[in-house]
Amino acid sequence: ITEADLQSDDALTFDECRSLVLDTLQEKIVVGHALKNDFDVLRIHHEWHMIRDTARYEPFMKAHPTEEGVLIAKKLKELSRDKLGLVIQEDGKEHDSIEDATAAMELYIKHRRKW
Fold it and tell me: Is the whole model's pTM more than 0.85, yes or no?
C-alpha cells in the first residue's frame, strides 16, 4: 500500500477497512508474522487460539542475545531463508505484503502438524 493508494478516491476509510477486516476474520484462523502489530493498528482483538503467528511460535524463535532463557522472534526474512529456502524482502526492493503473507502461510503449512 502506497501513499497514493491511501489518497485515492477509491480508498476505504479507516472504519470501513476495520469493519471489512473484522467481518473477514470472524471465526477464522489467522496466519501471519508479528500479527500483534496489524491487530494493534486496526484496534482488533482476535482470540489467541485462532492465531498462528510465525513470530510467536517457539520453535521458530531464537535466544535473546543478553537475557538467558528469553526467546525473541526471528525476522520473517530469516525464517523464510532458513526454513523454506526462500529469499524475500530483498534489500533495495519495495516491501511486498503478498510475498510476506505467502511466506508466513508456507511456514505454517510446513509445520502445522506440530503447531
Answer: yes
